[in-house]
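Title: Comparing notes on inverse folding

I've been comparing how different people in this forum approach sequence design from structure. To keep things fair, I'm posting one structure and asking everyone to reply with a full sequence. Here's the target:
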């Protein structure tokens, strides 16, 4: 448009904008500026939680104890350690009372469960049953949780190695004479 308000392409005057049209233009410009800043109207879904209280549920509302514990376990990545601890507690249910009376889990590291047996016969028996137990544990805990069961036989007294051991002695039963 030129100075007189005429449209040079058509040779006639453009109509004057009414108040409603000016308001629409101002609203559209304000919305565009808000979008550019990231504060678009109706953008409440993208707003960070905890900035404003309202009638709808958010993460600060009270919740049942088990739901809070589940949320805590998930947020901190404690699912696997807690599941393995559950296996340690439920060992007799998983392997049966007869095996549980003679074999007990010691520790879980690097997807390997270490089990100690009270006799070498039970250790041999558990080694034969290990693939079935791994499958049962993985069905209970999730596939790939237990890769291997390491079976240990009965352990004697710990070796008395250290600075006070006399060279050539036969151990704690030595009678000095």
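Reply #1:
Here's my take.
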């Amino acid at each position: 448009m030129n100075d007189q308000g005429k449209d040079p392409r058509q040779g006639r005057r453009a109509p004057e904008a009414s108040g409603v049209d000016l308001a629409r233009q101002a609203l559209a410009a304000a919305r565009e500026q808000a979008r550019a800043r990231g504060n678009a109207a109706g953008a409440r879904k993208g707003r960070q939680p905890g900035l404003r209280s309202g009638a709808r549920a958010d993460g600060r509302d009270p919740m049942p104890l088990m739901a809070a514990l589940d949320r805590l376990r998930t947020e901190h990545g404690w699912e696997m350690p807690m599941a393995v601890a559950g296996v340690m507690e439920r060992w007799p249910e998983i392997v049966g009372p007869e095996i549980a009376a003679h074999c007990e889990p010691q520790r879980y590291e690097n997807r390997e469960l270490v089990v100690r047996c009270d006799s070498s016969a039970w250790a041999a028996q558990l080694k034969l049953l290990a693939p079935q137990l791994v499958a049962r544990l993985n069905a209970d805990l999730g596939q790939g949780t237990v890769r291997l069961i390491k079976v240990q036989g009965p352990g004697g007294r710990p070796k008395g190695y250290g600075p006070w051991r006399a060279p050539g002695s036969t151990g704690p039963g030595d009678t000095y004479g």
